[in-house]
Amino acid sequence: MNTPISDFLEKYTTSGALRLHMPGHNGAIPHDITEIDGADSLYETDHTKSIIGFSEKNAAELFGSDRTCYSCGGSTLSIQAALAILKAQGCRTIAASRYSHKSLLQAAILLHMNIKWLYPEEYLSADVDYSGDALNGADAVFMTNIDYLGGSCRLPQTDLPVVCDNAHGAYLKFIDKDMFGGRYLHPSEFGFPVISAESAHKTLPVMTGGAYLHFYGGADHSRAKEMMSLFGSSSPSYLMLESLDKFNKFITERPDAVGYACEAVANLKEKLQGFEIPLKESDPLRVVVKAYEYGYNGFNYADKLRANGVECEMSDRNHAVLLFSAATTHRDCQRALTAMSLIPKKKPIPKAEYPVLKPKAALPIADAVFMPQTTVPLAKAIGFVCGGINTPCPPCIPLVMPGEIISDEAAEALRLYNVKEVSVITKVR
Questions:
Q1: DSSP string, 222-260
Q2: CA separation for the pair 103, 87 (Å, rounded)
Q3: Which of 74, 91, 227, 416 is most deeply buried (CB count within 10 A of its CB)?
Q4: What is the pLDDT of residue 357?
Q5: How far is CA 176 from the centre of its chain?
């Protein structure tokens, strides 16, 4: 498969042209350019006549989409653009899991959209009930395909527009379902129209910030570039665009790369069970250690991994999450196995109970965010109205939303994530 962006950058780099244009390093980073003649613009609406458009068409063919747009702002930009598209179609209220990424909340605030929260049975779970009265009053649905602990969900057939946060699941398009099961679907397999936001950089060999906005099943993409430009930088990174471009060739030449990585991780999981290291069921490119059953809280277990030369993706009081990718090798998994096997097993400790919070709202979200605020210690925040988006990163999922009253239970949940200060608006008694 051709690489029009990469080819242009290489041709320009070797041309010897005097660079009297941005960026200011004047070619010290050769492929880092701006929208010079021939490079085109990421937000050009006529995507059929540009090197970026040609590359996006290649990606659309690989992912089986009606249209694919590149993002240099991660899935965050893709989610923002998707909600803007729905807003332009008349959507005012979107139904979403309470444990959605904060980019949903931020986009809804800026677009003055309402969110109808759907509550799972477990903290951080993406698995919520979309049936019955759950969607009453909603104009659209926002779903998370893979949550931070490797869980998933299923959305029944619906007539409502659907946006899928598939940030952690771009690789699912390239897995062998016979080998790795059908529990985890790529949005292209949902069987209904969907706009899918996908981070290439999370599980594919792409630079940080590289992502996709896919349209499937006839989902309207006529204003996609326009809406992306509302939130995206007018100076998108050509290094990111090149890495997205190069992935098209990578996966064409190595169609078995994702399967190879998934096989390596599956073998690792099997060996970890032999070491009696307790694992939570998760998607094919993730290992989630139930650290509390092994005698540690997740933070301490992550420290042990770090001391053994392994940095994990996320940890909390209960779990440590190791995230692999299409570039993962059996050698990588062997290193992870060695590091984990060196951590001595201890007596299990109690599991920290993160409550599924349902705080009372005192103000609309958008009103709360833009009101005068002050920062107070968490212990003194109880009874106040939350003003800021307080979330640890990762998982970038707010526990208390702006406009909601911080209860004792909410404060305890924040404490479990080592949140020490909270932005509040006013005191409510």
A1: TTHHHHHHHHS-SS--HHHHHHHHHHHHHHHH-TTHHHH
A2: 16
A3: 227
A4: 87
A5: 22
Give me the CATH number covering residue 384: 3.90.100.10
Kind and range of the H or E element at 141? strand 140-144
- Full domain range(s) for residue 170: 4-253
Length of the chain: 429
- What DSSP designation does 176 have? -
pLDDT digits (tens, 9 = 90+) for 248-297: 999 999 999 999 999 999 999 999 999 999 999 999 999 999 999 999 99
pTM over 0.85: yes
Starting from the edge strand earliest in sequence, which strands make up the sheet with 194-199, in order?
67-71, 211-216, 194-199, 162-165, 140-144, 93-97, 114-118
Q: Given the DSSP bridges, would you call strands 162-165 and 140-144 parallel, antiparallel or unpaired?
A: parallel
CATH of the domain at 238: 3.40.640.10
Q: The tokens 């650290």 sit on which residue?
A: 291
What's the total number of domains in the chain? Answer: 3
User: How many angstroms separate the CA atoms of 401 and 364, rounded?
Assistant: 10
| Distance between CA atoms of residues 38 and 27, nearest Å | 17
**Mind listing the pLDDT tens digit for each residue in 122-180?**
888 989 988 878 899 999 999 999 999 999 998 988 999 999 999 999 999 999 888 88
Q: How far apart are CA 324 and CA 311, in angstroms?
A: 11
Show the tokens assigned to 107.
Answer: 């986009």
Q: Please state, as a whole number, how many other Cβ atoms lie within 10 Å of the Cβ of residue 420.
A: 10
Confirm if 96 and 234 have CB atoms less than 8 A apart.
Answer: no
pLDDT of residue 47: 66
**Alpha helix (H) residue ranges in 64-168:** 74-88, 102-111
d(CA 211, CA 209) in angstroms, rounded, equals 6
| Interatomic CA distance for residues 206 and 200, integer angstroms | 6
